Amino acid sequence: MQAYTKRHAMSVHYKFVLDKRRKREDKIYPLKLRIYDNDDNKEKSLDIYLHEDDRDERRQTILPNDPNYK
Fold first, then answer.
1. What average pLDDT does the structure give for the chain?
2. What InterPro entries does the record tag this protein with (predicted)?
3. Alpha-carbon gap, residue 13 to 37, rounded angstroms
């Protein structure tokens, strides 16, 4: 009898997102890393806080006028 194992193609994607559910008093949002792994999604806090205007959503970058820009 032979044992067969299924091989699944691993496709991991990520995206940086502002968690707009967690707005602080000074109107900044936490930046999180969202990881997509097939049907599973996870978010990891990066301990970075940004104003909504200090981030380019399409390019996934922090703009140079923000103190967190490196």
1. 81
2. Arm-DNA-bind_5
3. 7
